[in-house]
Amino acid sequence: MQKNDLENILNKFSNCSIAVFGDVMLDEFCWGRVNRISPEAPVPIVQVKTETWRPGGAANVASNIVALGGKAHIFGLIGDDGQGRRLTEELQKENILTTGLIIDSGRRTSVKTRILAQNQQMLRVDREHTEPIDYERQKTILSTLSDLIDELDGIIISDYAKGVVVEPLFKEIVEKFRRKNKFIAVDPKLKNFQLYKKPTIITPNTKEAEEALGRVFETEEDVLKGGVDLLKLSGSDAILITRSENGMTLFVKGEEPVTIPTRAMNVFDVTGAGDTVISTLSLGMAAGCSMAKAAEVANLAAGVVVGKVGTATASCKEILHHFDRL
Hints:
37% of the residues lie in helices and 27% in strands. The protein contains ten helices and 13 strands. It has a nine-stranded mixed beta sheet with strand order 5-4-1-8-9-10-11-12-13, with helices on both faces. Strands 3-2-6-7 form a four-stranded mixed beta sheet. Strand 12 and strand 13 (258-260) form a beta hairpin. The longest helix has 15 residues, at 220-234.
């Protein structure tokens, strides 16, 4: 890809509008230093100096879209609690549209707390509710999506297996967006893979792809066969397997697989890298790119975020700077 091609694609992102539906979370970061070991147990004591919060899970996908210049509408469940209000505030600070966030007083807002010292993650604490979404709230999400669908280019379904992405709702969303000829991109979770039927593209990592098929990819040939089998299993138009240091491999129905080498220069933290991939890929498709070209841009964006600590996003400026350094 030439730099002017990349610039042309990135410049189109500001005209794109994408819905993000899935398991929204609040990512909390406690930053500090370790100077001694606890006398109570052989564990380090972290003296917390700073606390920060960011949208996490499906909400981080929306953050990535906005960071790249696109427009994002978030759909999901939060609790009637302080964490839910903080998450809503953090999203609104980023100009993410939150009309699709539904308060469920019977749930708690999912929070992932990461303890970091000297920029190294020491511990993560998860507080969450994973009961399946009830029928009434499924109807509310579908109704709100239906009201907005004509102004959307497509939807990202970001599944963290916390009970929001359930089969009846997934099926209805796919049918609605298919009827309107709009894309459906899915970031999957291991145990839910059987429900992802007939989206436009699914973006598993290697482990998720292996678990979906019940076998390990030991060779390049295993990966290539696995991608083809996932196309058949899901009925999806395309599969993009993200493969860490081995880059990513794209499988599109009726086309030869394409492997894109990694573009990461430094890897400090992979938190949220999958969110960046599916966000950039979706913006590329919304901007009219082929899937192969959109995957190339997504690969560059992933190379930016893994060089940061914590839940991160990439901007168009950072992607161009990263491209110049390669």
